Amino acid sequence: MILYSRRTVCLPLILSLLIAACDEEATPPQQGVPAVTVVTLEPEPVELTRQLPGRTNAWLMAEVRPQVTGIVKERLFTEGSLVEAGQPLYQLDDASYRADYNSARASLARAEATVEVARLNAARAAELVKTNAVSRQEHENSVAALRQAEADIGVAKAAVASSRVELDYARITSPIAGRIGKSSVTQGALVTADQAQPLATVQQLDPIYVDLTQSSSELLQLRKAVAGGNVRGTERAPVTILLEDGTRYEHKGELSFTDVSVDRSTGSFSLRVIVPNPDHLLLPGMYVRAVLSNAVLEDGILVPQQGIARDAKGNASAMVVAADGTVEQRSVEVSRTIGDKWLISSGLLAGDRVIVEGLQKVQPGMPVEANEAAAAADAGRNGVTDPPTTAAGTKRR
To answer: Does the domain made of 66-92+172-197 have the CATH classification 3.40.630.30?
Structure first.
């Protein structure tokens, strides 16, 4: 009976100790403060660029047309080749024009001979009138005949010049230097002085124009920002050209012209950029995009893209480490991307510490250990790394 009483007394004590041990094992260890990487925002000048679509156009373009009527006797160029200004392109049959030229020269020679005779008669009459050998009227008639003969020389010279021009027009030359396209006529074709179709087109491609269009609302917004004083306009900034495949063209362009009127149908205005094209890589009619520097924002706030999140409605927000070390969620507005960062319009200020790494393990109001991104990168380069974290946010040692 005594042994039974001792067992009865010890059994509850043993059970209580076992229950306490089990409770101690079931209690999870206290979680540590999660570490996050932050970026402290600092204002900096930000170049505001705009990417605009455009088409290339030749620097100079001349349509080759005949100025006289005739049969094409010979084509004197290779299609698609480079031609110089004044280089012969077509030779028309000039037999009739050469005959007219020779006839005009003969008329000029006859007029010159007539002038010589009239001059001798006038000189002879001037001597005879002194002795009254001829009447004064005869003398005056001889002088008038001389002047008429001299006027005929002027008419003959004009006829020679006119016929020479027509003869020269029978040999059609290039008005500018550039690359010539295909010929619309062949040997033996009849061309006329007033025809609408050009014989060929010559285009100068170095440099080349890039014609762009920009919304007038964007221009108005930019001018308001410049007037506000925080944005500084840029003048004569180089323009970067992007080709159809997205590659960057090696030569920079320069903005040379901005239209003074807005297209009523599209609400946009035109800009023209001059781009060097020594290798003739850009051809007229190509679609390109131009990156223009419109202005410089003096105190821009940039945030890495991984630090900005969006909800289902598209609203942007950022997690910020407050002064007391807790996480605070901020609603922000972004205007555009600058490289791999967002340009912030509102919601964040200089000095704010935005979380860029470790967002998956923090919630608003939670205390965190903030490490600067630059310091974390330096530690990684020096071989110092943080221990891995578990799903609960505690670091395994």
So the answer is: no
